[in-house]
Design a protein that fits this description.
This protein is an alpha+beta fold and 204 residues long. Helix content is 21%, strand content 34%. The C terminus is likely disordered. The longest helix is centred in the C-terminal third of the chain and has 18 residues. It has a single domain, classed as Jelly Rolls (Sandwich), CATH 2.60.120.10. Helix 1 packs antiparallel against helix 2 and helix 2 packs across helix 3. The strands form three sheets. Strands 1, 2, 3, 6, 9, 11 and 13 form a seven-stranded mixed sheet that branches. The chain has a four-stranded antiparallel sheet with strand order 4-10-7-8, with no helix packed on it. The chain has a two-stranded antiparallel sheet with strand order 5-12.
Amino acid sequence: MSREVLQLQNRHTEERLSLRAIHHEGQLCLELKGSLPARSEGPPLHVHFVENEEGVVRSGTLSAILDGQRLTVGSGQSASFAAGSVHRWWNEGDELLVFDGIARPLVDLDRLLEAVFEVLNAGPSGRPDPFYMAHLALRHWNTQYLAVMPRPVQAVLFRVMVAVGTVMGKYRGTDWPGCPARCIGVDRTAARNTAAGSPSGAGI
């Protein structure tokens, strides 16, 4: 299967993401193109410790929380989420939200997103399997943070859950949701060069 462009879809919310590696201004970056239906929730509060996000809304309206401040980004407007910022976004409008985005430099956001979508799709709506979520959170511990609970609590709880899940056989083989052997992200060797200037995108 070609991974030059990685297509992701949440079967519960119909959120769609298209991911591709690009070279931009001397950096390996992640290009994101996506959509979210009207009146739909996006991801929970989260932090990218290394990757900066920026972009533009193509249609609809993006609502966001950035470090405690409410943002509304309309069609044609841009937004940016600096590395280390606590943020989330959603679509509270009546139109389909369509956005383009870039994360730079590309570290592991593509692998995280692929694993998260797998875990979400494998479970019932709003109830992803906590054992798989704990495993992927620990794998990306130094670069990504799902701010659903204090980080020190996560450090203890997730390690206990992964230990228990290992005993239960939750991570046996490579067929379990979010398995790192399969969720390897985009093909970095296929990254294309972009023109000078900031490519269009919307922070995720």
